[in-house]
Specification:
alpha/beta, Arc Repressor Mutant, subunit A, D-Maltodextrin-Binding Protein, domain 2, five-stranded mixed beta sheet, 39% helix
Amino acid sequence: MSDRRHDADGSGPGSGHGRRALAARLDWNLIRTYVVVAQELNISRAAERLFVTQPAVSQAIKRLQGQLGYTLIRRRGPRISLTAAGEEVYRIAGGVFADVSSLEMPAGGAAEQIVGRIKLLSVSRVHSARYDRFLAEFHRRHPRVELEIEVMRGHDLLVALRQNTASFGIGLCRVPTRLIERRLIIPQRYALFCGRPHSLYSQAQVDVETLLHEDLVTFTGDQLGDTLSPLTLFRENHGFQGRLAASSSNLEEVCRLIRCGYGIGFLPEDAFRREVEVGDLRRLPPAEGLADVDIHLLWNSERPLRPAEVVFRDELLAAFSGA
């Protein structure tokens, strides 16, 4: 590593003696600060998360770089990027802190019971009775595994997994993505809908030609988890030319805007079947829907899985085998 200092006597960080000495003198509070900086890539936001001042964060990074002997970050004004060494330190540190969370396992019964913590990132409105049954069964079998679920946009979910900040994601990933392993669990078909206030709601006959110039509600940026969106397919396959009336990055808010009559819009059929049944939404042509935007189990391919995570992954995939 070009920016790393080496000791002439062979006791530097690369040697066994050097590694033991480093572990003895390393301040793990500095590592914790660095992990937050690496996640935020912004000193100001990192300071806010840590409840310290910006100069304190900058000084901590400087001290850590001095202890390790190489550069971790590059700064260009407010912008921060990680060096190759910084990426590796972040990967290792993330694994260390994740492992520490499992130390609460008592000595007695450790061999009989899986203990640990799983952080699961998920897109909103994952509608699946099989998924619900799996979660219930998993908790029954492994009551000492703590599960944290955070809902976020599909694109942000992939970024977070690449940054090694969670165990798994339940989200959208239609095309192969660097560092991401994916397994299909819930097939999902998107279709067009309108709400009760919309003029098409009470119209007896509606065909695709009727929809081509309607106002549209869609997802912010016309993107669903780095995949080809229903809007793109609607334009390409049917010649849609309507204007964008409203958008949101949140599926629930997209549904709300459609229900309130802002325009027609795309939603996963199964997730919003109840809204159709109670009359809040009307399903529109084409009858075959618009696009498959399936839900996958996702994880970082370079992140070693802890025992509780291996069990969670394997049992979830088994529950959906043949789905």
